[in-house]
Amino acid sequence: MPEKPDLTSTTKPAFDPSIQTENIAFAANELIGCGACRRNNPPTRSKCLYCGDELEIQTENSTKVKPVVRPMESWERGFNVIFQKKKARAKISVPEVAELISQSIDDTGLFLASGKMLPLARVDSSKDAEIITARLATLGLICQIVSDEALAANEPPVRLSGIEIDDNAITFIAFFTHAATKIAIGDLALIVPGFLSENKIDMVERRQRKGPEVFDQVESSVHDTIVDVFSTSDPKGFRIQLAGFDFSCLGAEKGFLASENIKKLLVFLTKMAPTAKLVDDYGSVRRMLNHVWDLDKRSDPQGMRRLGFGKTGLQKVETTSNLQQFTKYSRLQWHVYEQERIAKEAKEKTSAT
Q: How high is the pLDDT of residue 24?
């Protein structure tokens, strides 16, 4: 009769290497040393596991690195991988692209089908952005990198209180300083209409043993048309909003409603400057932008509020806005315009020689 196993024994059985079908560890010569903390890291990382410093990636190891694509806050400074075009006759593997940029296959397919020059991914290091751009190139997509610093969404365009027009020039009047900026009509480069969508929730919370409880809340929203205008030499631009703008430049065409006047002004500007590029697809691409440039959300405490005898609650206002998203979008359009202008001038110069 075979011996019964001793179930009371606490001794662990010896490791049998024959049951491991492959070596899952990295070899010592594959590890990457961090220049800052001197610790070794797996060759799949672009940043140090211990101190967060960027690692020096050798060319032969670049294909092993897995770039970190994570949701980033609007205040973080990042680098945007912008889709430009597909390579000629390239067969795009949507699942591979989706895995690389950490998006769903359906959303990635929708993006690629649109053919728009929009951000595919936003990462927190230039090295990760370069790795993603190189990998996308092997998958048949040509992309470029534009930093958040270049888009400068935290520095909005100059808000206008009005514009004045003469035969050959347009003068922009700043809303706060009333400073006048005059440019030639021929130098009006880009017109980007969009909308400001802002939702506010004014609420009062009571503290309970089981956690905060909403005692009262009031919700309000704003949805207004805005227009950004850029000259050939100014990447910052000017912004026209409904509130506080004088539509007297429309003359007899000026109506009673600001919402109608801004539509008339858009038509007026495009007719006055026919060489200016009009980009009016923000509404149709906004869903795709949300995956990379999320809406700006903030919570502003308003202090304590008395709710009754011996009872108080915390009042706060939660705001969700697309203002930074639209600013990034309009600034991106100026960068696209500038690249097209430089390429056109280079082509004309080559043809002339």
A: 62
